[in-house]
Design a protein that fits this description.
- The chain folds into three domains: about 5-140, no CATH class; about 150-230 and about 325-375, no CATH class; about 230-320 and about 380-405 and about 415-435, no CATH class.
- Helices cover about 40% and strands about 10% of the residues.
- The chain has helices at about 5-15, 30-40, 45-50, 65-85, 85-90, 95-110, 115-130, 130-140, 165, 180-190, 245, 265-280, 300-315, 380-390, 390-400, 415-430, and strands at about 20, 25, 60, 150-155, 190, 195, 200, 205-210, 215-220, 225-230, 330-335, 335-340, 345-350, 355-360.
- A four-stranded mixed beta sheet has the order 4-12-11-9, with no helix packed on it.
- α12 (about 265-280) packs across α14 and α12 (about 265-280) runs parallel beside α15.
- It is elongated, with a radius of gyration of 27 Å.
Amino acid sequence: MKLDENDLRKLVREILRVKWRGDEYIVRGDIESQIEDLLQRDTEDVKLRSAMKRRVKITRKDAEEEEEIASEIAEMIVNQFEKKLPDEFAEKNQALIQKKMAHLQDLIDGLPAQALNALVDAFFKVFNTGKTQQAFDELFTKPWVAARKQANSVIPNEGVLGSKAFFDVREQGTGDTMGKGEVMLALQYGDAGDPTFRLDPGGIADLTSDSAGPWHVKDLTSSKNISLGKGAQVLVLKEYFPIKLIDAIPGITPMNMGGKKYASQWLQFIEKIVTAMETGDYDPIGLAPGSAALPHPGDSIEDIRNKSQMALDEVIRNSAGPMGPAEGIIFFKGGNAYIAGTDNISYIRGNGRGSNVGISLPEFGADVGDMASIAGDPSMIEGFKSALDLPAGKNLVKRINAIQAPPEEEEVEIEAGEEEVIAESVQNRWQLLAGVKAK
């Protein structure tokens, strides 16, 4: 007799249920007898017989073998969609079904073998609970609402394709692996059946798109900040404030800076800023990055702290820095997707190897909207507080209060041509660094 759906599902799950051991995928459990039993049945499915005969051990380096598995799984899932959609609907929507299924097959074909078992589970749960039509309607149709680098949207993970089963489809490991939520997003977002995103593990970002741009994807668990790949890239911008200043202080770097533990280093940080404000010599602390401003006479200690954090955020956001050319980060937490554009991302702390980032606090000039509920607490806040609690810190506050703001200068009319040259010069010095990353 022909194999039924449950036989097929069970077989596929067992073949793909693997554990990591050296450079090989090893099948868990004795399934040879099950395969032999199924082979005794009279099945007309030649491709299925081929899949059942597949050798039990699959080497990680055999990329062609993995692609074959993904292709077979993709074809199986597509066939189930076409089989379970209502006949009347299928007759009226042949073009749309063909389009969506082609995109679905392309997406699955590109998945790593380790992610396929969870994907099979997720889709067969849909098929077996009568939700095939709903899943089809959601496939590649959710509009991308984010406003690029200013994005501040909070979107619930909902619907059939927004379930935890699809969220959990991932590749084990860190770094250039495919993480949680990436497949879920790629399946949902699209326009008229054409997908918005392509999965790009190991690329410039986790998801890439011709219309929405590249986006990093991060799953937040108990924390409100997370390590950003290529976090050490912040050192490329070391001529800018506050990176130049941090890098010159013994015992602290942009990659290990924290809070209270580094109180003495933060004291030196503040003192050097105060000296620059008193003398007017800002070279030791660095140039102002992007739209950030350097501390100046008349600023309070809160102003100095906020300007320092906002300048650090500008460095993080620059395309030559850790964010790269990404439009922003999609954070997952508590069943929601927080779509944070680059302008709403803050440096939180060093992690020993690079940079941890999170959603910006509103007081640092970011328009984060409802995302404020999971905004990170930068280590600089605690660092400043700890430094100022020291006896020498209290003296610094007195020095800051003693620095008077300079009198306002009379406005001088500048020729239009001169104004353009000045503006272009300042802007280019910062923006040209975007090319550093590509070198």
